Structures are given as structure tokens and as C-alpha cells.
Amino acid sequence: MAEKQNNEVKLAVEKCPLTSVTVFKDRAEVSRSVETSVKAGTNELKITGLVDIEQDSIRVEGRGQATIAEVSFQFTYCNEDEASMSEKEKTLTEELKVLKEQKKSQDSEAQLSLLQKQWGVLDRFATNAARGSQDTNSGFKLDEQYFKGMKDFLQHFRDVGEQLDAETLEVKEKREEIDEKIQQVESNLQEVRGNRRRSTCIRECIIVLEAEAETAVQLKLSYVVLSASWVPSYDLRMNTEDGVLSVSYFGLISQNSGEDWTNVKLHLSTAEPSVGGTIPILPQTQVNLFKPVVHLKPKSSGSVLTFRSSARSASSTSQAYDDRLQRQASPMSAVPVKIQETTVSASYEIVRQSSIPSDNTSHKVTVGIMELKPTMTYVSIPKVVPHAFLQAKVVNTSKFTLLPGKSNIFLDNSFVAKAELQAVAPKEEFECSLGVDPGVRVTYKPLVKVNSSSGIISRVKVVSHEQAIEVKNVHNYPVTVAVKDNLPRSLDEKVKVVLQSPYIDAKHPEKSEATLTVDNTVVWEVKVGALNKSDLLLKYSIELPMGEDLDYKTY
């Protein structure tokens, strides 16, 4: 029987293609494919050139006629000058050199100085011409020829001045543009060099494989990087003609892990690994009688108190795997899943492959597009803003969990506003404002106040208020508008507020013209026909003792 030999294989991480990346809110899990061959006996496979990763997050799975005996992580240091300059650093260095040469060749300061001198010459020429025209001994005649010449000169002065201003602005814009590019490249170069300095610490993942005979194996290497995150973003597009609310769900991904993710399958997860799975311990509070602390003069003992802690051995940083692979194992068939949900989180698969460079810049990917059928309502608070806001009440009939994020709102292909979308689970109902609809016009007319008195024995002052509101619909379809206004609330028993219009019957709401909420808000649900209008009236009186005045406070 042949003696089994030990075999060592080194493989750079760049040679291990990315298969997928799952991005969490504050980190990402990267998966790579590793293909190699092993000999009979014990094989030590070293994956070199790893970025700064969570050591305890390394996982290895595989296929083939071999056994994964051990997986560990180690790092060694080398001198900084031994680390070769990456292609990305070379590219950025060359780009920075070209930009600085462009800036030098432009010589914007000299161009601006020249333009300023030209302006000075033009200005002095105009000043001398004006002085000459005022000199009575110069022989100038204020005739038609003089005024024509003056007009031509002023026109020429304006044309030349506009040209000089335009050239000055162009030089400044070019200078600002190239300065911004230089600043961006220098920032990216600094990050790359920082990653290179970190790369002087060589990180290796060591996989020990045991095989009975020489064979090819396929491994899946997974690890977690911390410098990555994603946040949701939305576009809400409401088409009033067909009544469909289209919600475009985006993920804004940024990462600065030190490795570029190029043409990779992305997953966005709503899980929060940073929270952890350990239930916290509730601290206990004890109470006792207060005793003053007596400060004693410390005695010098000359002894040294030493704290000891057990050092973590190098072997404890490794993760041992006792997963033995089945002989001639065939891959399991699976149907592609776009949304994977658990009891605590959801994961969204991005259909198209994406590229996310390590530049700490947000990159947008499309999570999905939902078409929802909302119930449309209008809300107007004309006392504050004399407009009608279109509001959509909609049930999330999709499988997507909408996370809190910023949204851009479009109404009939026109951008109307930005808003914050709150968390919405599948099957949950939510409301979102779609901005002002110019097709529904609300006019808040001036308040009319009339002072009078009443009573024979006990005279009281009565202040009548009439607030007229007009709602006009210029659409060719009817609308329902919830118009809100406030009825003053009395804070003094001597002041009495009496509502006269609209009619409200608390016992028989069906007979009421409006409703009155607990915070004294009068709400009309007014239906306005196509190309029609409706007039509303809020009328109330305030009674108070004679000789007193009202103090109106709005909060």
C-alpha cells in the first residue's frame, strides 16, 4: 500500500470567482467558488490575499471525493515595501497625474488675470470717453451723430462685457470641475493605499482536505466583511387615469471592504446580525439606607496586583468542520427564489448581476416593482395650506416588506415631492401622500367677524365668525375631498363657543353635514362633481362678558 503524502496548494483569492454576496444593513457575506485538485493523503489548501474579514464567520462547503478535516484562519506581516502596488492604485495614480497636468496646462489663474485686465481696459476706456463728452472745450456737439455714436459704443461695451463675463465663468467652472475630479481621485487613492497598507498583513484561510486518491474538488468559501451596508429607496408613481400606484423598490448599496464585487449575484437581507441572538439580562436594582463614605489614607504596601487572563491559542481561531462529503454527490436541484422569508427577516435576490466597487459610494439596484390599486382620497387643510393633497390608501399585496426609507413621489409622470415611507409588511395597509393636485383648487376666503351684544339683565358680548371655503374641481371626473378646519376651544368657563354651521348631530351622525373630532376639528367629506365647485361655511359665535376681550392662541 502506497504511503499517503502531504500536499500544499496556494491559491490567491482573486482566482476564486465570486458567486454571490448577501448584503445586510451593516455588513455583507461574500461567497466564492474554489476549484482545485488534491492528492492522496492530507492536503493543505491556502487561500491568500483575503481582506479584513470576521475570522469566526468563515465557512467552507464542498463536493468531491474528499473530506474537510479543518478550516482555520491566520495572518502574517510583511514589510510595507514588499506589498506590490495594485492595478487600481496604478490607474488612480496615472489619472491623478493627468488631471494635474491638465490643471497646469489650463493655468486658470493666468486666464482670469488676463480677463480682469481686459475688463479694466474696457472700463477705463468707457470712463475716459464719458469724461471727454463732459468737457465743454473738447468740441463735442450734442447732435444726432453724437448720440448715435454713444449708442453704438454702449452696445459694443455691453457685448464685450458679456463675452468677458462668459469667458470668466467658463474658466472658473473648468477650474472647479477639475479640482473636484482631483479631490475625488485623491480620496479614492488614499483609500486604496490604506487598503494596501492593511494588505501588508497577509491573511490566509487554511483548508485541510483528506483524500483516498487524487481527485478534483469544488469548494464554496464564505466569509463576512463589515464595511458594507444597504438602505432602501423608493419611487412612487401614481397614474390617476388608470388608478395604479407603481412602487419601484431600490437598494442603495455601499461598501469599502477592499475588494470589488464585479458581475456578482446580489442578495439584500433585512436581518440585523449586529443585534445578536443573546437575550439580554435585566439588571437588578437594590436599595439600602444611605451611609456616608469614610475616606481613609491609603497605606503603601509596595505590592503589585497582577491580573491574569488565559491567552487564546492560535488553534482556537480556527473552525473545525467534521462535515464529510458523500461519495459521488450530485448537486441538489432547486427552483430560483426571488424572495426568501423567515420568521425574523427577508432576503431579496437581485435578478440581474451587479457590480459594486469598493469605493464607499452608493450604487442603486432594483429590488422589485409593485403595481398596487389604492383608494384615492383628497385632504385639504386650507387654513394652513390652501391646496388639496392627494392621498393614497393602499394594501401591500406584494411579497415585499417595505423598510423605512426615502421616496420620490411622481404624479402623472411629474415629480411632486419627497417623503419618508414607513415600514410596511405584506398585507398591511398604509397611507402615503402624493403631493398637491392642481386640478382641485381650494380657496380660503377672509374671515368675517361681527361684534354684537345680547341679554337684558346680564349683558354679554357676542363675536360672530364666518369662514367661507370654496372647493373647485377642474377634472373631468368627480372627487371627494376631506376639508378640515378647527373650531376654537374655550379654556375659560366664562367664554362660550357655539357652533352654528355645519349642522352636527352626535346622536344621529347620518343627519350631520360634517363631523367634529375630539380635538375640535371640523371635517367635511365633500363630493365635488366634474368641472364643478362646492361652497362650505364654518359659522360659530363666541360669548364673553362685557368689557372683556378675546385672546386667540394657535398651537
UniProtKB/TrEMBL annotation:
Keywords: Coiled coil. Residues 219-545 form the DUF4139 domain. This is Protein F37C4.5 isoform X1. Residues 82-109, 164-195 form a coiled coil. Residues 21-118 form the DUF4140 domain. The keyword Glycoprotein does not apply.
